[in-house]
Amino acid sequence: MSRFLSAKYQKLEAYTPGEQPKDRAYIKLNTNESPYAPSPEVLSAVSRETMEKLRLYPDPEGQRLRRDLGKLYGLTPEHVFLSNGSDDSLNFAFMAFAGDGRRAMFPEISYSFYPVYANLHGIDYDMVPLKNDFSIDPADYFHKGAFLVIANPNAPTGMALSREEIRSILETNPYQVVLIDEAYVDFGGESSYPLIHDYPNLLVVMTFSKSRSLAGARLGFALGNPELIEDLERLRYSTNPYNINRLTLAIGEAAVASNAYFAENCKRIMENRERVRASLLDIGFEVLPSQANFLFLKKEAIAGETLYRRLKECGILVRHFSKKLIADYIRVTIGTREEMDAFLKEIKTIVSEEVSYETG
Ligand SMILES: *Cc1c(COP(=O)(O)O)cnc(C)c1O
Question: I need a surface site. Which of 16, 95, 195, 311 has the fewest CB within 10 A?
C-alpha cells in the first residue's frame, strides 16, 4: 500500500478471483465457465469492418443489444441496463440502492463479492445464515427494510428458490430494492423477471459469462422497472459511459440471436451434472442438489482442502473456500463429458487412497 491511498480504502479487502495457474495444462473446473465455445454466430460476429470501427467510441446506450435483450424477455429496451460483466451491474446497484442509513442484507454463504461491494461503498450489512441443509429460508427476508441481495440459484451451493418464494420476499419488502442475482438461472432455475411488472423495486441481474460462454467478453445486464434502470444509468454515466466496447456489443447481439444454441449447451450441462452427481452419491459423497453449472460436495473424513490439493496435483482445478462453515466442501464446475469422466476417475482414486490411509 502506498502512503497516498485514501484513508477510506486502506482497510478494503478485495475480492479474490479463482486461480488461473499457468504452470501446466489443467482441466479447469474452478470458475464456472462454460466448457463449450460460443455459438458460430458469435465466432463470426467480429468482422474486419467492426475492427476498423474501433477508432470510434461504441454506442454508449447499447441500443441494439438492449432492444434484442428486451425482446428476448418480453420487455422494452428501457427495462434493460448493460454492464461490463454482471459484477459491474452489482457494483452500480450497491452504489445506487443502499447506504445513507440503508443497510444491505444477503445470505451468509453466497457470492463473496457482495460484502466487498458493501465495504467499498461504506454500506453496513447483515449476513443471514442458511438453513442446516444450506437452503435459503425466504421467511428470513420478510419485512427487512434493507437492500436485499439474493443469488438465485445461490453460489456456491447451487440451490434455488422458486419464483413464488421470491414473490413472497417482494410482497413484504416494498420499500427497498430487492436484487436477484441470476448468474446461474439458465441451468434449471426459475427466473424472476416476469415479476418485474408487479414489483417496481425488483432488479434481476444476469450475465453472458456462464450459460452464454462469454466470460472473457465481460457482458452482463440488469432487468427492472425503467426508473430503476435510469438510476443505474445516472451512475454509469458518472463513471464510464463506454463500459461496453464495440466488440462486446457485436458479440452480445450475435449471442442473443443464437439463444437456441446456448439453451442446447445448458441442457447438456444439466444432464452431465445429474450424471456426475449420481456417480458421486454412489461413492459416498454428500452432494447438494444443484440448479447451476456446478456441484458443491464433500466426503466424510476427507478435508475439502485435501480434495482440492490432490485434484490439482492430477491437473484438475476445483474451488475450495476456507470459510469455516464450508471448508469441508469443494465446488466443481460441470465441464464436458470427457472432463467429468477424468474428474470422476481421479476422485475415486483419491477417495480410496485417503480412506485406506485413514483406516490402515
Ligand atoms: C459469476 C458470477 C457473477 C458475475 O459474473 P460476471 O462475469 O461479472 O458476469 C455474479 N454473480 C454470481 C453469483 C456469480 O457466480
Answer: 16
